Task: structure prediction
Amino acid sequence: MKIVFDPAPVAGGFRMPGYWVWCGSVIRGEDGRYHMFASRWPKSLPMHPGWLAASEIVRAAADHPAGPYVFEETVLGTRSPAYWDGCSVHNPHIVKVDGTYVLYYMGTTFPFPLPEEGEVLLPNDPLAVVARANKRIGVATAPSVTGPWTRRDLPVLLPRPNQFDSFFVSNPAPCVHADGSVQLIYKSRPYEGHTYGNMQLGLASAESVYGPYARKPEPLFPPAIHIEDPFIWRTARGYEMIAKDMDGSICGERYSGVHAWSENGEQWEMTTRPGEPAYSRRVLWDDGAERLMGNLERPFLLMEDGRPSWMFAATSDGTNGFHDCTETWNMAIPIREIEKKEQE
Result:
């Protein structure tokens, strides 16, 4: 599968001065406008691992899917660190179920103060190490896209000892069915001694978004398939998935997109081949320029009239992922068509 895009609007998407912005998830509200749920954290912290320390989930709105989206409110912020999601929330994914807005997200907590202005926060600092290990998946709900939002005292998904998802669980990618049941794909890592192994994707199913969730004992793909940021949706032939190729070993382009397919949502086949990414992080913009983006992550497809119409992705101006970027934002890319390969 290959997603064919029209040029991306330079003036579209969502940015916020003074903040790193990531993880855009869009839904059309009861008001007819488009609402993006996104992660942000202050630029007083580094892009990475600052999101582990102080990310919050905000809502921005626009009259058109392209945007530009304008900040309206903080949806989920910090609360007591005694809660599982008390210090940082990230990875929002918005759905609507039986008239209720359900926001899946990752939350974490830690017993450390945030760095003071000018202090360095590194990935191996105790705060970042503990925050990474405490990542869990939960849901918040609201009767309207504008709230009020109800958080829960407990997550819906936890790591499992001695399993492939023993270190953390994050990056929720739900597919909610018409009867309210859900298949949730998520990212994890296994403990390997006192460190952790490659990212792996798991599958959890439930009769309701609130759980309880039953998990498959094995990951969806072998550890050598190093991917993250899944997004799944239903089609007439089953389930489709796009995800980020962490090292380029699958599609031939590091950080670009791969595609997988499943008839039942449980057994998945990787259809992407080297040199044939599902989408590239080389983006054509509506000013005529083509740019290799530092990132093109957290893909989210907006469904309209039964088909994907826009892809939203977290992007940056860096040349080495988020390691050297100075700006990040959520961009919007119009989808012209989705090409299927003959062998799919």
Remarks:
- Residues 47-54 form the longest helix (8 residues).
- The longest strand covers residues 328-339.
- The chain has one domain: 2-339.
